[in-house]
Amino acid sequence: MTFAERLRELRDSKGLSEAKLAKLSGLPFGTVHVYGIGRSKPSYSAVLKLAKALEVDCTAFAECEDLKAEETEPEPEKPTAKKPPAKKGKK
Asked: With contact defined as beta carbons under 8 Å apart, do 28 and 22 qualify?
């Protein structure tokens, strides 16, 4: 089950529209909509807000295959900034 499918299932079980869920969660309607159609995946903080609004624990989304795949992918290494060498000035 994907995050979008689980979100719709939970929202429907509570009898909430996307607009009502957006209001309860504090997220913009457009954001809730794109999560609901699977166009975008939520951040962890968005999952927490949605879970709270749906009156479920955030683990209600733990088995979502599209979120689990992200957990196992290693994060790309970030390039480190190199400091320029210190200037040696005349005194």
From this structure: yes
At 32, give phi and psi (nearest 5°): -60, -40
pLDDT of residue 62: 86
How far apart are the C-alpha atoms of 21 and 47, rounded to whole Å?
Answer: 12
In the chain the first and final C-alpha atoms are separated, in Å, by 70
Distances (CA, A) of 27 to 16, 35, 65: 14, 11, 23
Residue 47's SS3 state is helix
3-state secondary structure of 62: coil
53 touches 10 (CB < 8 A):
no
Per-residue model confidence as pLDDT tens digits over 6-16: 999 999 999 99
Whether the predicted pLDDT of 80 surpasses 90: no
